[in-house]
Fold this protein.
Amino acid sequence: MNANILQTPIDYLKGVGPNRADLLRKELGIHTYQDLVNFFPNRYLDKTRFYKINELQRNSAEVQVVGKITHIKSVDQKRGKRLVADFIDETGKMELVWFRGQKWIRENLKINTPYVIFGKTNWFNGLFSMPHPEMESVEEYKKQLRTAMQPIYPSTEKLAKSGITNRVVNKLMQQLFIETKGKFYDTLSQELTTELKLIPKAEAVFNVHFPQSQELLAKAQFRLKFEELFYIQLQLLIKNMLQKQKIKGFIFEEIGQNFSEFYKNHLPFELTGAQKRVIKEIRADLGSGAQMNRLLQGDVGSGKTIVALMSMFIALDNGFQACLMAPTEILAIQHYNGLIELCENLDTSIYLLTGSSKTKARREIHEKLENGEIDILIGTHALLEDKVKFKNLGLAVIDEQHRFGVAQRAKLWRKNKVPPHILVMTATPIPRTLAMSLYGDLDISVIDELPPGRKPIKTVHRYDSNRLKVFAFIRDEIKKGRQVYIVYPLIQESEKMDYKDLMDGYESIAREFPDKQISIVHGQMKSDAKDYEMERFVKGETQIMVATTVIEVGVNVPNASVMIIESAERFGLSQLHQLRGRVGRGAEQSFCILMTGHKLSNDSKTRLETMTATNDGFEIAEVDLKLRGPGDIMGTQQSGVLNLKIADIVKDNDILKLARHHAMRILKEDPSLSLEKNKVLRFTYGQLAKHKNIWNYIS
């Protein structure tokens, strides 16, 4: 048989034809036999079990019941009538209801004849009812040949209108299995299938489309999900391995004066266990001879900056320069001020370069950078300009990396003959499952402890009707000498509306607090006006800052202890968490108050409950992932990476971990997959690299 039969265009499958083929391509991305095999059902109707009426649950599930009709009646309603039949078994009674086709149904229903009914149940007036059930007499039911688990495939409105129903897709799938004889090469090694007790590939593919039982369906899904996630992990791990082999890095063997002096005499506080662990991981990378590519995740306020500074000291101790790139000017200035303060008693030369640096200052920086007089350069995208030339750049730290594209990072690589080591930092906690799948080719470090002395922020949810109490609370906090943020949502489609919300809010705050100084910051202000207002708040000249989300990243005011988020239901979880992180930076107790109206969707309620229940960014990120899915969280540029056919990284978290564990174990023993037992893995991986998503091969 032709091994390439799966690459046959879908037009040639019996029952398809040019029009249907066109629709399948446009609507579902099905171009070949291969794509159709990988078009998996998204749910199944379970007809393996018959329920008794007294076993039914109030869960709108689709169920199958055997019983008899004892009575039929027409019931008047606002518009027309409905037909209602009493349906009983030996355990109880329920109702069957029809809103249309009543004449025909009434003529064909037989009283006291055993029927098998199937459909969704509703609970109404103390009774279960089933609208428009599928019905068959028990006698007819016994004659039918059927699979007990009926697959339901994803569909679109266009397909349904064009007559490509679930039944049609099912028939096409049957035809495909006839033409391919259902023979598929196994794409996993014998060792893996034996160890994990996986069913053969052919059996898995058959049972996922035509399940013979609940148990076989579960085994088929497990096998296919494992395989899909295993090859994604294998790809990422091999990429990481090749990167380390191919891209040599500077070897930083020395831990010298800068690092030791700072560690012994100038550390403002004792490092947490997590910070020590991460510094150890970075030190090992910097001394390995391979270029470091490490992602450092740590919640707002967890002390990533100290880790970055100490990593830069290692570069300095080995005769190299370091740079730190931030996505906004505000954040770059803040990093600069923070590092200057930490290094004030050290002989470290730190400079700042941003878009608004004056020409004279730029010239001086360019010159000093090239002759090695600058140790650490902090800046925005301005660092990427061709004019910016380092004498010897050894380490580049990138803050909030999701705001920089791959091309921008690559520019940093070219700032030295050998690419500098790269440390990428983010305060956006990425769920572990997602990090494993998207950044599996980066080494990941996590700071999961807050520095000692930090009190967890108290978060509460208040409705608009409690506003007067919230104002009283603000007054009390300001009396104690604290400062307050009040943030309004920014929804880009309607900047006019946002601006109006903000100005209305500002006016009502000004009326409520006539004796207080108030700063205002929003996206439509010129950057020098924005900086001026920020500066007043930082210096404590104003007590209240009214702002849009422009303050989300990077403002550090230890004296600000209250964050009020207006219309909190309009924010995503990660944004709420980022905003909350603007307070809680001093030793005082801080508060975050989420203000909303009374009308809230279920998702909004979940977000608000999560925020009030936990301060753990990773826990919040996991909930966010469940609510929004991976594509939304990572943004469009990343979601394509996870073009999964059957696995779901949220629900199949355990399978993902198992797949990664086995991929790592195999590569540790056999990095080039050259052993005889891994031959099939090498072949499949090669095909995958060529075709991106080949999972099946005809034997």
Observations:
- Confidence is low (pLDDT under 50) at residues 632-641, 693-699.
- The radius of gyration is 32 Å.
